[in-house]
Design brief:
Elements (H helix, E strand, L loop, with lengths): L5 H7 L8 H10 L2 E3 L5 E5 L4 E3 L2 E3 L7 E7 L3 E8 L7 E5 L3 E3 L8 E2 L2 E3 L8 E9 L5 E12 L8 H62 L6
Parallel strand pairs: 2-12
Antiparallel strand pairs: 1-4, 3-10, 4-9, 5-6, 5-11, 6-7, 8-10, 11-12
Length: 225
């Protein structure tokens, strides 16, 4: 992890945040929440600079809020304090290679940091911890895992694209089949209805002709003697 002076090591030996159940109860009760984003994994290229995101939210605001960043749960790499929402964070101590890039006077309470000149030894777990005295010293933290690589590997999405294309094609064919089926059934129904009408009409005409002939014959008076 980031190298510092002996004085830095003394600061880095500060106790990490405690994970006591009671503290989490306070966090839940007052809705103090810390997040590192949608994913908790970051991959960085060796000798590059990497952003470690972290934001926090609180329902009742904050005052004299303290936030810290730890490497592998024990090594302190950044220590800051925020007087109120109207003021920007104040750096109390930080590792020489760690830079604060957040802001709390805007809409989002951003306490992200950047780790400069990443080395392979920097790979590990980074914990963003927040303590809010205004919420009865409620505490909460979130963790992000950093992986350091020699070369970024380009992800081959060819197989995925093929699968998506095949599935999309099958769905399209299914929809086309259903449409053709409905059209064919509609045509068949119309044809059958037409045939029924012809049969009914033809039958009615035959019965009418037969009936009229019969009635005329019956209405003729018998010849007088």
């Amino acid at each position: 992890m980031p190298k510092g002076t002996r004085g830095d090591k003394a600061m880095a030996s500060l106790s990490p945040p405690l994970s006591l159940p009671g503290l989490h109860i306070f966090a839940i009760a007052f809705a103090l929440e810390v997040s590192v984003g949608k994913t908790n994994t970051v991959t960085a290229l060796n000798n590059s600079n990497v952003l470690l995101p972290c934001v926090f939210t609180t329902c009742i605001g904050f005052q004299d809020l303290v936030f810290t960043w730890y490497f592998n749960s024990t090594e302190l790499i950044y220590h800051g304090k925020i007087k109120s929402k109207a003021t920007e964070p104040i750096r109390i101590w930080s590792n020489p290679r760690v830079e604060f890039v957040g802001s709390t006077t805007k809409k989002e309470n951003n306490i992200s940091i950047v780790l400069n000149s990443v080395e392979f030894s920097d790979a590990g777990k980074y914990t963003c911890h927040v303590k809010n005295p205004k919420e009865k010293n409620a505490q909460h933290n979130a963790t992000i895992f950093l992986t350091v690589v020699h070369k970024m590997v380009k992800t081959d999405n060819t197989v995925t694209l093929i699968i998506v294309g095949v599935v999309g094609g099958l769905i399209g064919l299914l929809i086309l089949f259903m449409l053709i089926k409905r059209v064919v059934l509609f045509i068949i129904k119309k044809t059958q209805d037409g045939k029924k009408e012809c049969l009914v009409s033809s039958s009615g005409n035959d019965n009418t002709e037969n009936g009229l002939a019969g009635s005329k014959a019956e209405q003729k008076a018998p010849p007088k003697a």
